Amino acid sequence: MYISKTKFLHSKLSKGINGGKCSRMVEKEYKIILNSKEYEKIKKTYIWDEKYIQENYYYDTKNLDLYKLGITFRIRKKNLKYTVQIKLNNKTNECIYKTKEEYEHDINYIPLCVNSEQYNEINEYVHGKLYLIEKLVTKRRMKQLSECSAIFLDKSFYLERHDYELEFEFDNNDEECLNEIQKLGLSFKLKVSPDGKYKRFIKEYISKYKKGGK
C-alpha cells in the first residue's frame, strides 16, 4: 500500500487511548472535483495499482463545532480495520494545494458517540461528546507515480447523492503531480481550491436536515 514520503518523514508514534498506537502525519495534496465524463475518462487512462472501498463515519458536536473550526473527526473502515482519523487544517498554507496534520488512533468498532476528552488533538477546541452524524462511502482507485507521489480517483456516496474527485498526494516537490495534472488537461481546475469530502458532506447534511441553521 502507498504511504507518501511526506507522511513517513513526519510520522510520529506515541501511546494512544487504551494503550493503542497513535501516529501523526502531514498530508500534502491537490484536490480536483470531476464530472462523470472526466471521471470515466481518467478511470480508463491508468492501470490502477489498487482498488478498494472505504467507509468514513463522521463525528461532531450537535452544533457542528469541529466543522466550524475546520477540523475533521472520523472513523475510517477499510479491510475490516477501524481507525480514528483527526485532520487539522494548516491555516498558514498560501498555496493552491492543501496541507493538513493528520492523527490516527486504533479503535475496534463504530460507536454512536465518543468522548472528545480522550483525544488530546481536539480537547482544547471542544469538550464533551461527539456524535455520529452519518457515513460516506468511497470507491477508490490508487496509482503510485513514484516513491513520493500518488493519484487517487474517488467516487463517493453520501446522503442520497454522489460525486467524483481526483487527489494527488506528494512530498515537498509537487512537480510530478503538476505535470500529470497538465497531461490530463485539468490545470485550469487548480485555480479554485475545492471543498474536501467532509465539507461537501456537511453542506449536504445542513441542507437536508438543518435548513436555516449554521
From TrEMBL:
Domain (CYTH) ranges: 25-208
Annotated Pfam families: CYTH (PF01928)
Organism superkingdom: Bacteria
InterPro entries hit by this protein: CYTH-like_dom_sf, CYTH_domain
PROSITE patterns, A to Z: CYTH
Name of the molecule in the record: Uncharacterized protein YjbK
The species this protein was found in: Hathewaya proteolytica DSM 3090
